[in-house]
Amino acid sequence: NTKWVPLIFHNVRHLESLTNRSIQIATQNQEILNHVQQTLAINDSPKEVEHGENDPTFSNIIPQTLGQVEALSYSDVNTSSKLEAILNKESLDKNSTSRLKLVRNTPALSKPLAEPDPLVTLAGGGLPDQGRVEIYLKGVSGTLCHTNLSHFEAGLICRHLGFKGGISAGAGYFGPGSGVTWIFNASCLGRNLCAAVSHPEKTVPCRHNQDAAVICDHMLRIVSPNGLIKGKKGRLEIHHKNTWLPVCGNGWTEISARVACHQMGFTNGRLLNIGEWDGGTNSTWLGKITCTGLETRLDACRSDGWVESCTGLSPAGVTCL
């Protein structure tokens, strides 16, 4: 079965590009640091040396792709501060993002196809961290039969792919796949003691319009009043792009609280009034949420999206039962 060869080749080339980018940024930053040290040493010496805006040494050492170089006022800052300004958050964020993508993509690609573990990937989601679960095992490719895939099981799949966790998007959420349909045994993923996937019994109806889909993000957690993460009562937070963010309490209802608690594996949930939270002053929030009660995950409810403020700085609170 050669279906997966282009996918694997594309991902290997992507990893190569990310690695080269990380090396390039690290090398450029090191050159800038070396030049800053040399400049500071010159400035500390009795002889005064001035560097002009068109100094070839200065212009050659600055990587134009790393920051908003044009926005700097060269007449107001000296050479060393210009160089230090290039070592900005943007370049470091790019390097961190590349490293994170490498960590996430390497596990699946480093597993030979002949290993007992299946090769798992996400397809049809448009982003690396979400999609239909597709599996290749011993020359056979296909999709994962939903069979009420839980958020816990979806989290296991996402962690297997190098993410921090994840949730089930729902049956057929990212469209139908093709090939065989596999049955998933979550407890066996990443272990050689039992088969992580198997063919379904004839009595188990599995069609591709019910293919399992996951989102390796938007997990929920409860932060108690004393700051502990584990517990059933407290402030609700949602994971978004590697950061835990508060959920705005404006319009928060008992129905929304139940949806959130169900997602976290609890039987029921109730609204909890938190009041003003000082920690939300400079935070991004998940804006006003309105759930109908039929949703299986909080991010499926209507919301105002990711916003920079929440009226009254009052986060959503839950008591899960």
Automatic annotation (TrEMBL):
One GO location term (cellular component): membrane
PANTHER family: DELETED IN MALIGNANT BRAIN TUMORS 1 PROTEIN-RELATED (PTHR48071:SF18), SRCR DOMAIN-CONTAINING PROTEIN (PTHR48071)
Keywords for the protein's UniProt record, in alphabetical order: Disulfide bond, Glycoprotein, Membrane, Repeat, Signal, Transmembrane, Transmembrane helix
SMART domains per the UniProt record, alphabetical: SR
Localization, UniProt: Membrane
Main location: membrane
Protein name in the entry: SRCR domain-containing protein
Family annotation (Pfam families): SRCR
Matches recorded under Gene3D superfamilies: SRCR-like domain
Start and end residues of each SRCR domain: 120-217, 220-321
Domain of life: Eukaryota
Cysteines joined through disulfide linkages: C291-C301
Membrane topology type: Single-pass membrane protein
